[in-house]
């Protein structure tokens, strides 16, 4: 009987911990998108940062979803990968990202 009580107690503690500790969520806001775009434009962003941005959902901030979609379209056509100069995009892609940065800065979200 004592083994059952101890097993039940451990089980309940594990269930409580799993309910209390949830899956972490990564929410990018306007300031985060601006910072990332600036890093991309100066050649300091990593491929991983860019990939996380493109795969992030913006359900918490619907005005940023079209921005992410536009960046994904640029990524499809102008992405070079990490070059010696550090830039992830061609000159055309960087020019398009500059225009998107201006759009994001013009949004009144925060």
3D architecture notes:
The protein is built from 5 helices and no strands. The chain starts with a helix and ends with a helix. With about 110 residues, it is mostly helical. Helix 4 runs antiparallel to helix 5. It is elongated.
Which key phrases capture this entry?
mainly alpha; 110 residues; single chain
Order of helices and strands: HHHHH
Shape assignment: elongated
Which structural class best describes the helix and strand composition? mainly alpha
Determine the strand fraction and express it as a percent band. under 5%
Mean pLDDT: 90
Give unreliable regions as ranges.
none
Helix content: 55-70%
Please give the structural blueprint:
Blueprint (H helix, E strand, L loop, with lengths): L1 H19 L9 H13 L4 H9 L9 H14 L12 H16 L4
Short summary:
The protein is mostly helical and 110 residues long.
């Amino acid at each position: 009987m004592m083994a059952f009580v101890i097993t039940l107690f451990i089980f309940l503690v594990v269930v409580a911990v799993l309910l209390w500790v949830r899956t972490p969520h990564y929410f990018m806001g306007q300031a985060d998108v601006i910072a990332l775009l600036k890093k991309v434009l100066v050649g300091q962003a990593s491929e991983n940062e860019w990939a996380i941005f493109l795969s992030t959902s913006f359900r918490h901030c619907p005005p940023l979803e079209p921005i992410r979609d536009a960046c994904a379209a640029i990524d499809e056509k102008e992405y070079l990968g990490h070059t010696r100069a550090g830039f992830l995009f061609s000159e055309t892609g960087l020019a398009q990202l500059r225009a998107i940065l201006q759009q994001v800065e013009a949004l009144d979200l925060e």
